[in-house]
Amino acid sequence: DAYLSAIEAANPAFNAYVSVTPEKARAMAKASDERLAAGKAGALEGIPLGIKDLFATEGDHTQACSHILDGFKPRYESTVSQNLWNDGAVQLGKLNMDEFAMGSSNETSYYGPVVNPWRATGSDEKLVPGGSSGGSAAAVAAHLCAGATATDTGGSIRQPAAFTGTVGIKPTYGRCSRWGIAAFASSLDQAGPIARDVRDCAIMLKSMASTDPKDTTSVDLPVPDYEASLGQSVKGMKIGIPKEYRVDGMPAEVETLWQQGIAWLKDAGAEIVDISLPHTKYALPAYYIVAPAEASSNLARYDGVRYGLRVDGRDIADMYEKTRAAGFGKEVKRRIMIGTYVLSAGYYDAYYIRAQKVRTLIKRDFEQAFHAGVDAILTPATPSSAFAIGDKELAADPVKMYLNDIFTVTVNMAGLPGLSVPAGLDSKGLPLGLQLIGKPFEEETLFNTAHVIE
Ligand code: GLN
């Protein structure tokens, strides 16, 4: 009830929820009370959570914040959300996001932008919460849920976490089932939690992760007790600092924060080593070929026949065209066009195959660093703090917007786990995050190391 009232009072200002589910919340909370009374509490018993609108939740608004899914209410539940309910968590509602998770500012949602609960010191200017999981991050930061589900294809958990002073982890590809999550780029998409601190994130991920016969890319590995490994010494751990992440135009404050993070880990006994990830500079262009290619294929299913919106036409082809023209927003259309182009005969080898080769090289860079004994890699999470909603420069140039993902996309391209932890405020009083990148399926190392920084 406290969370539902907080949402009622604050959501008009932040627009973090696109749908609140009070009846479900109360019924789930009541069932939790009964289990608690019977001494049968789950790991998340009674904990109120928000769910990103990309996850199917049975009978509820599930539209990936797109117009094309108008009125769609699935009859099934995503594996990740079901796992949370199996552990006793309570659903508050569905969270705003960039349309089909395409964006870095939560400004592409059909339901309008999310407002970051943070403001620069002495300013009333409204800032973005980052994207695409902007609703998840803002809701957690504003205490409108105790934790939230999110997804990350190129940074959509870590960048909004960094912009809102929250903790977010993109687990290793395959750690969480993608079943019941609207697909953006299937070889890059992963679900993960956004929460207020590292411990909450660790607890949530343990519930979210599972092997799932309905997603053949989910791995058959036991899920460790991430919380139990928190607080272990980082003494003797090797932390890699990649020189390629020192990019042109990065504010000095971001560099200072990075140095601060290095100092904290050194003080805690970790060994700091300089490393090189030479193909980093190709990650962003390769990502913006691979991700739109997969998106153009995944989004072919929204045709006015199977789900959501239908705009009638003269014949079926005309109906498809009118539905897709009216149903998709500008950024989604841009991705579909880029993706269709790079997959088309004549361009496939030059763009798509080439990007896949670059992807292998990026993966190999990381493998070499880990092979040389590095346990985790420390970088900034984003090249800046949160920017203004409606920033003219970014709106006019999509490539500038894509630069937000410069430190995060490499991790998805390599399938590795990446975590963003708040590490301080910049001179405007806005949160900045540091990113930890780990070996496949070693999320514990990231939680434990982040716990030293937070
Ligand atoms: N900002 C990136 C994009 O727009 C990443 C999005 C995401 O991780 N879902 O593609």
Automatic annotation (TrEMBL):
Class of the enzyme per the UniProt entry, highest EC level: ligase
GO cellular component, one term: glutamyl-tRNA(Gln) amidotransferase complex
Gene Ontology MF terms: ATP binding; glutaminyl-tRNA synthase (glutamine-hydrolyzing) activity; transferase activity
InterPro entries membership: Amidase, Amidase_CS, Amidase_dom, AS_sf, GatA
GO biological process: translation
One Pfam family from the record: Amidase
Keyword line: ATP-binding, Ligase, Nucleotide-binding, Protein biosynthesis, Transferase
Reaction catalyzed: L-glutamyl-tRNA(Gln) + L-glutamine + ATP + H2O = L-glutaminyl-tRNA(Gln) + L-glutamate + ADP + phosphate + H(+)
Keyword Mitochondrion: no
Protein's UniProt keywords contain Transmembrane: no
Residues annotated as domain Amidase: 1-446
Catalytic residues in the record: 52, 132, 156
EC code(s) of this entry: 6.3.5.7
Membership in a protein family: Belongs to the amidase family. GatA subfamily.
Self-association state and partner proteins as the record states: Heterotrimer of A, B and C subunits.
Function: Allows the formation of correctly charged Gln-tRNA(Gln) through the transamidation of misacylated Glu-tRNA(Gln) in organisms which lack glutaminyl-tRNA synthetase. The reaction takes place in the presence of glutamine and ATP through an activated gamma-phospho-Glu-tRNA(Gln). Hydrolyzes indole-3-acetamide (IAM) into indole-3-acetic acid (IAA).
Protein's name in the database: Glutamyl-tRNA(Gln) amidotransferase subunit A
Organism (species): Gellertiella hungarica
Lineage: Bacteria, Pseudomonadati, Pseudomonadota, Alphaproteobacteria, Hyphomicrobiales
Record gene name: gatA
